[in-house]
Here is the input.
Amino acid sequence: QVQLVESGGGVVQPGESLRLSCEVFGDRTNHFVRTWYWYRQAPGKERELVAGINRAGVASDYADSVKGRFAISRDNGKKMQWLQMNSLKPEDTAVYYCNARGLFTPTGDSFDYWGRGTQVTVSS
Here is the structure.
């Protein structure tokens, strides 16, 4: 089993930046992460996809609202991903969730793990 642990959330003013991190803890050796995602959920709203990145490091699926401001990245060796968030706006306020999808290598079974989320609040 593995756990995804997010960090880096906090309270910032509009225009400031934050960098979220997500790391795999537990049985790292046998879990081959193919794709990482960041999702977010604001109060009273549905969870939405923010960005995704494949194993080759190609980012995709940026939400229109974050294009040009957010950047997703990963390190395959460290089994980590990051979300650099610049020019933050109040509407970016949400709980941000890390998601990892891949294969459990001993069996070939797929997995889809979620972190517990980290709060980002953008307020003046």
